[in-house]
Amino acid sequence: MSHHEIKYVSAAEAVKLVESGDHIYLQGSTSTPELLEQALADRGHELKDVTIYTGFGVCRGRSPLCRPEFKDTFLVNSFFVNNGFRAWIEEGYGTTTPRFLSQVPGLIRDCTWRVDVVFLQCSLPNEEGLVSFGVSGDVACAAVESANRLIAQINPNMPFSYGDPVVHISDIDACVYCDTPLVEVPTATPTEEEKRIGEFIAGHIPDGATLQIGVGGIPNAVLQALSSHKNLGLHTEAMTDGVLPLLASGVIDNSRKKVLPGKSVASLALGSKNLYEYMDGNPDIVFKDVAWTNNPYVIAQNPAVMSINSCLEIDLTGQICADSIGTRIFSGVGGQHDFVYGASLSEGGKSFIAMLSKTGKGKTKIKPVLTEGGGVVTTRFQANYVVTEYGGVDLRGKNLPERAKALISIAAPEFREELSEAAAERFGYSFLRLK
């Protein structure tokens, strides 16, 4: 089916399919369907009690649905707070549902969450009439299966990726043509401190390992430090520009993976136009439903899974907070727990939580106790390597005073004394006797 045979309608016409009381899933990653979102906002005064499910995404700005006069129109329920909705949720109008990312699709499939309508952004159709919503398979796959109305922006800038995030054009109830570039997430250039973290982690990754890698300066520093490794595999949640040099040079060849050997596996993409062009029609990359990519038992089948994530703060017992700053929800659990657990079950697997030792305001991120209200994303029962610019420590098998001593050794030097005093007060002689 060619692009010219599609019967396009305006965004205003398309969103007439939405009724009061509907539950809408809004696709995320770098492909939030903004024309549809704006058209829905334009109908805000005639609708009521419309639930909006959102997840991980990078938006161009605050969502047009987030206006005080729409407080009874659009009820935002996010499972990973993104920049389009963060302020709205903080203001108390929207809210968030805690759930491991691998288990969010299950909420839709078993009808715990009803999804009536999906707002998607898709590629042009291929010869068979299939369109791809490739940069955001994640939870969109389950939403598309479950909804009874699909409304899509058809965008020539959306790469066609193979795997789960495809749908036949005839299953879409309203198509809106749109030629806006996808949001680009610039590749963060690692600082000197981040490079030190990257080199430490790369030094603990064996040849033949399977990588799961997050987004940002530290993950990019790790990827840059892997350039002389061999036979690495990629089974990750988010595909980023950082992996492109390793794919081009053959460092990542997926030859030793047990799950989809020979293929790079991801659930969503976050990057530049280069990444989207590289993905487009590339049979060596497979995008899958996040219920599968992030299933710890699927992850664990690969050899030497290396899970590399970051956090906001960690306490002296190894409790890792990654979703909130005190009671203020900043993001969500994402796939951190899924991959930390999957790596722990993988033969030779390791998980790394990497962070700079201090916040931008100069406060220590290694703390006697978490900030009141802070959420534990990775529990102290699962913490493995923790890495800062001062080095890395392995908490696995260490008792509480040993953990405290290890973590203090990688804290910023100016905080080590007060952290030691807090540890001595909390753990008593068992800490003091550790010379």
Q: Order the strands across the largest sheet as they lie in space.
A: 4-3-2-1-5-7-10
Strand content: 15-25%
How would you state the average pLDDT, rounded? 93
The name CATH uses for the topology of the largest domain is Glutaconate Coenzyme A-transferase
CATH architecture of the largest domain: 3-Layer(aba) Sandwich
Number of β-strand runs: 25
Oligomer type: single chain
Please give a structural write-up.
This protein folds into two domains: 3-177, Glutaconate Coenzyme A-transferase (3-Layer(aba) Sandwich); 192-432, Acetyl-CoA hydrolase/transferase C-terminal domain (Glutaconate Coenzyme A-transferase, 3-Layer(aba) Sandwich). By secondary structure, it is of the alpha/beta class. The chain has a seven-stranded parallel β-sheet with strand order 4-3-2-1-5-7-10, with helices on both faces. It has a six-stranded mixed β-sheet with strand order 12-11-17-22-24-25, with helices on both faces. A three-stranded parallel β-sheet has the order 8-16-14, with no helix packed on it. The longest helix has 12 residues, at 192-203. It is globular and about 75 Å long. The chain has helices spanning 11-14, 34-42, 86-90, 104-109, 140-146, 192-203, 217-224, 244-249, 273-279, 290-293, 296-299, 336-345, 400-409, 416-427, 429-432, and strands spanning 23-26, 50-54, 74-78, 95-96, 117-122, 130-132, 149-154, 162-163, 166-168, 174-177, 210-213, 233-234, 238-240, 264-266, 268-270, 285-287, 305-310, 313-315, 320-321, 324-325, 328-329, 350-354, 366-367, 385-388, 391-394. Helix 6 packs across helix 7. Helix 3 links the parallel strand 3 (74-78) and strand 4 (95-96).
